[in-house]
Amino acid sequence: MGEMVPAPWGGHLATSYRLCHQVLRSRDWRVPDRAWRESQTDAARWHAPASRQMGATMPMLNPPHHTQVRRPLGNVFDRNSLEEMRHSVEKNTERLMDRFIDELRDGPADFCALVGDELPVMTIGEWLGLPSADYPLLRSLTHDQVHTQELFPSPSQLAISDAATARLREYFTDLIRERRKSPGDDPVSSWLRMWDEFEADQEAADEAVFALALFMVLAALETTSHLLTTMGWLLLSHPEQLAWLRANPELMPGAIDETLRYDAPIHMISRIAPEDTELAGVPVPKGEMVQLMVGAAHHDPEQYVAPEVFDIRRKTAHLSFGGGIHYCLGNALARMEAECVFTSLLRRLPTEELHVAGTPTWQPRVAFRRLGELPVVRA
Ligand code: HEM
Prior knowledge:
Distance between the termini: 43 Å
Bound molecules: protoporphyrin IX containing FE
Strand content: 5-15%
Number of domains: 1
Radius of gyration: 21 Å
């Protein structure tokens, strides 16, 4: 249909790798921040509580506000922090694999429910020091909240998202109150200390830390779960590549990147034109939204040789973690989780005996991809 496709609800969809890359890397294009949302006439879509809340989180801030929030955080998941986390991610992976292997003995075992959905919430929950009893709640609120970030959410999806956002606000407000009372060595306590230094108003500091903690959870769960489950699906349905991976463990980073290219967890990233401009010869007025269709860009034949072929030996870039100033802060953590899971799977199971039972189904969403289940059997 072309590189720039008019969206039926206004704005455009950019479908080529070239355009998505160009807009992501540009310092001029903006994200749909709170001011932009407030200026929109479609109030149901852009003024709803969940949308307003998203407008206050890091990926929806423009400079200089974005710089003020991101710079003091530094590289949260740098090499040392990741090494500290690795031991517990490996331990949790082994516990999840124990259950997966147990269930495989009695018939199909759902890799999505037993591993893909579990490890990300355990990882981020332990990092933030949250009680494990809260993990199921956080997982289900996250599934519901992300509807607001959909391409064109329905009124009922928006209502679900608003309710989840309100519940998440209560949850994280309580957490911040508790960490103020008894600060510790955890990220939320250290963000509070950091914000108190440059924000005289404690309420404003609490609000900033709330937005950060909320977004870390939203950003980390759906995306990493999708990476783990899809990687399971793609590798098990390409047994010859799984065998290469067993023989050549150094291919693991390539296998992770190829999964991220082939089926990006986030298929679409939104940007706003900073002024009247044009993309691929199509005029885009100032303030118009262009949805960067990353999922489509990853299958652009101008960018990739045989884009429909899943090939873990491919060495090509992708846009799954975005680009430019909003480049994903958690990319190294997500990669580490995938590495732990598939290293363990290869070590503990004769993968040539594993098969996906039936055809997996994706939830009817575009922005945040989600495989509902991945039943696996051992033959
Ligand atoms: C496979 C897993 C993941 C994928 C595919 C992913 C994808 C993305 C993308 C596409 C963006 C850029 C959004 C934009 O430009 O508008 C982003 C930003 C971000 N991600 Fe991730 N993410 C993943 C995992 C994580 C994890 C595990 C964390 C944290 C624990 C995280 C934290 C963030 C943060 C804080 C930002 C905002 C950065 C900014 O605006 O400066 N992500 N992510």
